[in-house]
């Protein structure tokens, strides 16, 4: 591996600084005003004392800010000038982010505007920025007049069951045909409507004694055709085993007698909703309000619906689905599901031209039905849609809802708290077209979108009245071109569409989502009319903008970056999930904590993590333990490497954003978790056990890997304590900083003594992960580090120079080898082609990150279907190394949020160029390099009001840069 050995020759000999350039001078005016975690003009904001941020213009003369002034005013309906709510006055400060509002707390519904100006490093005063706005949501329970409403099961009509066909028979010995005996049984079953309870009656002698026979029943329940097989002497139960609820349709009408100046809809649900007003969809969000700990907190969204309300008669309606609240989740019992019914909460506030306000709320005046076209909708189940059950213009005024049922209403109460949603909602973010359509079997049409993804398909298909179209999904194909779905486990994960008429049908599921690359259509009488345009894939995820990019001269490294980004898109659907397709899709804390640093390089996920950490705090027990998944499911608590997310995540968010608020909000919870380690330790070695180094390859034990559980617990104990030391220092808590600093030193001594006591390590420490944790988390005494480094190198050689790490060890392997001075090994691992490696999955055709290093291979086929996701972001943690070292864009924890950052690219390996761009809170930062004609050429872009230090190989030469675009050329 070739490096540019700059540390042995003086900088002036090697470095030709080609100068600094900036854009053409702009008007001296701040721009890109945001509030909180980068919200732009929010409607329904959550924080009554927000923080303000802005960016300085890219100008050749503007290097830094020296002072600012902020004015906050009420937003006037008449747009007349009003007195300020708060005027900061001129504040001497170079800070242009996270400026705390110090005026009176905002109240619910309040609308304000704010603007800012700054003084630069030459004491020039800027123009005022354009005005930004904030509109508050409903901040407290007292702001709600609405009640929870749900379908009143007591008023529900009896189910209608129609027996369409019944056959009783057996299989002929030596053959595969069924000998059907139906003469007598058909006379016993009356066609048409029958009671729900079907009691078998004895009809005479057995026409085929001695043989095992089966009763096949084809029937219609509430308009949905189904088939069921019943063993001899079994009871016929027309209800399917699925627990997915039908959609609940809810509506009411209201009068608007005067001109409406403003209309706001405040909405929430225990479940998921879609609203309509006068037949028009409200908003573009999906699966709202999202997933929280529903017993404690549920979120609300605010919609500006002024243009949807008419003078005179109006109607408001909602489609309510089970979502996360009432739907099947892994380990959730059927008996628990039976107790859960989706509930809706809504408050429509109309402000008239004369200043009066009218409020329409969910209460017992609403009507509801579960007899609409969405017959079932759940995340694991999928969706069943019967177009023949269409309700017509059910969300418009004048609709006849006499056959609908009353709703059951419940007072809001104090729990759960209803609070404004503090991150953007889920939306369709991208649309993909099919790249190929195949027909692997007669009547089955498979569409390949070329990319594993998460979302919902939109189908436009030729249908025949009464036919049921089956829409199935898969991440992979069998060798014969049919779908491979074994890795979905028990998740049905499909959609059905029953055609109401012959013609062209358009359908898109709305109460479920799917993880897939392939879509299969079957059941179409006119399937030959399908084309690749018959299905499009709508990609969904939380609505965050792209924030960074990484490119290089190596195609497979670029594909790895693409796989990482797609893995993030797919699993950032309101919460950070482990996988998006099988019967899981949960907020596993271990996956989240290893991937978080990488996530900040790809998308603006500040609000995403801040909101999820609120859920982590909600779920923390009084003793300080954190569950394995958040929101929690019955998996347990306090796994090292998983529960530690409450410590590692706030710190990593702080480093990448500079937001001290994230540390303040989580500081006590961080301490509570570390206290668990302290209580559960003997001689500073905790006895906590958990998931281990999950899915380590070539393990000698089980999926939890070969590294001792007590070692992993001690390593994370030490890491957490070190982070608490740094967090306490950042918050000015000197007492805690001193205590945790000493505790880390004590843990280091205990760790070295216990796991690396002599020439041979502890049996459970003779792994790559054990050494990586000890060295990477500074838990090896200085005089013992060379010995542990030697053990790590031997393990690497013994593994045929491959990694042997799982979820916890993998994020460390390249950075630790690099920091130890073995950057050639780091690059060797990154560019390795054979199993286990990052490129191995790419060589097998991967378009996202996989759960296992060998989830599939051309030679051996599919991996263990019980734990085999093809869209799992954990191993994408290598992205941090790609941005920070391959391209060289590295944050400085001492000046967080890229107020100052380092540029230290790792030039070498098979690369001839690499480049990273990142939109920081100050502006765009760039680190790019390329080899050209024997020279290393570098480009560094430093945003306004920041500085960067270019660090050359070995760290012995550096140069600090002010804002601007800088070009360098270095001798090879």
UniProtKB/TrEMBL annotation:
Chemical reaction(s) catalysed: Hydrolysis of terminal non-reducing alpha-L-rhamnose residues in alpha-L-rhamnosides
Top-rank EC class of the record's enzyme: hydrolase
Gene3D superfamilies documented for this protein: 1.50.10.10, Galactose-binding domain-like (2.60.120.260), Immunoglobulins (2.60.40.10), Maltose phosphorylase, domain 3 (2.60.420.10)
Keywords annotated in UniProt: Glycosidase, Hydrolase, Signal
Signal peptide: 1-25
MF terms (GO), sorted A to Z: alpha-L-rhamnosidase activity
Domain Bacterial alpha-L-rhamnosidase N-terminal: from-to ranges: 258-429
Ranges of residues in domain Alpha-L-rhamnosidase concanavalin-like: 440-541
Protein name from the UniProt record: alpha-L-rhamnosidase
Species in which this protein is naturally found: Aporhodopirellula rubra
Source organism, top-level taxon: Bacteria
Transmembrane feature ranges: none
GO BP annotations, alphabetical order: carbohydrate metabolic process
Alpha-L-rhamnosidase six-hairpin glycosidase domain: residues covered: 547-886
UniProt-listed Enzyme Commission number(s): 3.2.1.40
Residue ranges constituting the Alpha-L-rhamnosidase C-terminal domain according to the UniProt record: 893-958
